[in-house]
Write a structure and sequence with these properties.
Catalytic activity: Zn(2+)(in) + ATP + H2O = Zn(2+)(out) + ADP + phosphate + H(+)
Family: Belongs to the cation transport ATPase (P-type) (TC 3.A.3) family. Type IB subfamily.
Largest sheet: 7 strands, mixed
Radius of gyration: 31 Å
Distance between the termini: 38 Å
Subcellular location: Cell membrane; Membrane
Pfam families: E1-E2_ATPase, Hydrolase
Helix content: 40-55%
Strand order of the largest sheet: 9-21-20-19-10-17-18
Keywords: ATP-binding, Cell membrane, Membrane, Metal-binding, Nucleotide-binding, Transmembrane, Transmembrane helix
Oligomer: single chain
Shape: elongated
């Protein structure tokens, strides 16, 4: 039963009891009604408490059950009814607060495109987005959201990509440019050729991440159970001492009535949901509350290099053919096997080739972390790392990022690339150091010398170069306990295993691969490395607010219990004050929504 329905039922019973007591002058029936309601609600709470105890935790419901039982035992059934109203009202208030905290997180779901205008000949049909296939031609009308990723076939257009990148400035696109789903069209209709199915398109993947983040349980809500036992002991101790001194059983009821478990039940989960919503508003999807807790306690962080610390927009720098091949032949071989790959080096090669017609390789096979091979005009072409393409003793002529090539297992040459460090990289590393992160590393598949040059430029001192995916896993798995939790930041397919193995995986999802985003606990939706340090800072602030909110609520309850122990706080008023404690805890927790 939903909490709001429980609240309405209890409130209705309270109204009936009021009529019986004060209008019909039947207090006996009012007492029976309230007592029966109290027993039924206590059974519901008891069932929940038993489930918690079976999970190995000490639940907070025992305080609520004790307060109801104590007030009924001393005949103060109106106080018992107010406790029931406060408990069910508090649960409803929690639902409202969670809904408010999730508002930014769910805004993406509300704008999900569901219909596409498919063009068939001269006809235009509205079809479900899920029915659109690769190669279909669709029309996107002015101010509509692009439903799937595609290629622009019509003329120049201005698009609003703010929901994906966070940049409010419209982006200019011309014929032949790739378009992201989730972008908002400008003032004129455009024609698009579909390049990805709806489920694989940028916006739908983002929406799925939000769905996943809602399904993931926030483990840290069990913080309530960690404080439940000592808080319960304190409440019973104060109630017991008050009774021993006064010999008045009403003191037990009066103390337990204000021993509200609401700060423990509400504060932590609401703060965590608010922190997740704040992150989403800032272009970062955190998939669960557990991740926020880990980011708050993290001790070490590792970065991939290409596409993470660098822009990843590499350009072809030099073409160095060997064994009688020309530069044109060498680059054509590479383009043939790489033209279907999404790897940053493959993209750079295709940009260099431009519109030049290239034969499509057959029998393509990608070896993760090493390279790709395929047949071009009957010849076996391998492109990738040197030890993958050939076993010949080759003297490398440069220390730059390179693709090596062999044809029919005979070395054919090398293509070098240049990359640029992200302008925000140095500041991001400086912020992490300022936060007290003990260990900052670069773990890269690129050469050690190249990796060290990049690391020196941005302020990283520990560098692991020339790493295969399995090497990255070994480094992360072997991290000693004093450096955990450890965070891994990456963007490519080869980073996906590392993001899974790390205590927290952060994917640069704006341009990175979908597999990296799927494997990660945190996905950065804007192409800005500084979002890494921003996310860690938000997590630390969220956890600080969660702890503060719990302790504020406990402190207020403790003060009220001490006042009640002296007999100056009747149970009826104390029961009403529970709602005040609820409001204080929730208001404090919702501070995690605000940017600072």
């Amino acid at each position: 039963m939903k909490n709001i329905y429980k609240f309405i039922i209890v409130l209705s019973i309270a109204l009936v009891a009021l009529v019986l007591e004060f209008i019909l002058k039947e207090p006996h029936y009012a007492k029976i009604l309230i007592t029966a309601t109290g027993i039924l609600m206590s059974i519901v709470l008891l069932k929940g408490m038993i489930d918690v105890l079976r999970s190995g935790n000490f639940g907070v419901d025992i305080l609520a059950i004790s307060a109801i039982a104590a007030t009924l035992a001393v005949g103060n059934y109106w106080a018992a009814l107010i406790i029931l109203i406060m408990i069910t009202g508090g649960d409803s208030l929690e639902d409202y607060a969670q809904k408010k905290a999730r508002k930014d997180l769910k805004s993406l779901l509300d704008n999900t495109p569901r219909i596409a205008h498919k063009k068939t000949g001269n006809d235009l049909h509205d079809v479900p987005v899920e029915d659109i296939k690769i190669g279909d031609i669709i029309i996107v009308k002015p101010k509509e959201i692009i439903p799937v990723d595609g290629i622009l076939l019509s003329g120049e257009v201005l698009l609003d990509e703010s929901s994906l990148t966070g940049e409010s400035k419209p982006v200019n696109k011309t014929k032949g440019n790739g378009l992201w789903s989730g972008s908002v069209n400008g003032s004129g209709a455009i024609t698009i050729q579909v390049s990805k199915l709806a489920k694989d398109s940028q916006y739908q993947q983002l929406v799925q991440l939000v769905h996943n983040s809602e399904k993931e349980p926030a483990h840290f809500v069990r913080m309530a159970d960690r404080y439940a036992l000592p808080f319960t002991i304190v409440a019973f101790l104060i109630a017991g001492i008050a009774y021993l001194i006064t010999k008045d059983p009403n003191r037990i009821a009066e103390v337990l009535v204000v021993a509200s478990p609401c700060p423990l039940i509400l504060a932590a989960p609401i703060a965590l949901i608010a922190g997740m919503s704040r992150s989403s508003r800032n272009g970062v999807v955190i998939k669960s509350g557990t991740v926020i807790e880990k980011l708050d306690r993290m001790k070490a962080i590792a970065f991939d290099k290409t596409g993470t610390l660098t822009k990843g927009d590499l350009t072809v720098d030099d073409i160095i053919p060997e064994n009688s091949y020309s530069q044109d032949e060498l680059i054509d071989f590479v383009a043939s096997v790489e033209q279907q790959s999404s790897h940053v080096l493959a993209v750079s090669v295709m940009k260099y080739i431009g519109d030049k017609p290239i034969p499509l390789a057959t029998d393509l096979k990608e070896i993760e972390g090493n390279g790709i091979e395929g047949k071009v005009n009957g010849k076996l072409v391998k492109v990738g790392k040197l030890n993958f393409v050939t076993t010949e003793p080759i003297s490398i002529k440069t220390e730059k990022t390179s693709l090596f090539v062999s044809v029919n297992d005979k070395y054919a040459g090398e293509i070098t690339f240049t990359d640029e460090v992200r302008p925000e990289a140095r500041q991001t590393i400086a912020q992490l150091i300022k936060m007290g992160i003990q260990k900052i590393m670069m773990i890269s598949g690129d050469k050690q010398s190249i990796s060290e040059n990049i690391a020196k430029e941005i302020g990283i001192t520990e560098v692991h170069g020339g790493c295969l995916p399995e090497d990255k896993l070994k480094i992360l798995k072997s991290m000693p306990g004093e450096f955990r939790p450890v965070v891994m930041v990456g963007d490519g397919v080869n980073d996906a295993p590392s993001l899974t193995v790390a205590d927290v995986g952060i994917a640069m999802g704006a341009k990175g691969s979908s597999s990296a985003s799927d494997s990660a606990d945190v996905v950065i939706l804007r192409d800005n490395l500084q979002k890494v340090s921003d996310t860690i800072l938000i997590s630390k602030e969220t956890m600080k607010i969660a702890r503060q909110s719990v302790f504020i609520g406990i402190a207020v309850c403790t003060v009220l219990m001490l006042i009640a122990a002296f007999g100056v706080l009747p149970a009826l008023i104390g029961a009403g004050l529970q709602e005040v404690v609820d409001v204080i805890s929730i208001t404090s927790a919702l501070r995690a929504l605000k940017d600072r």
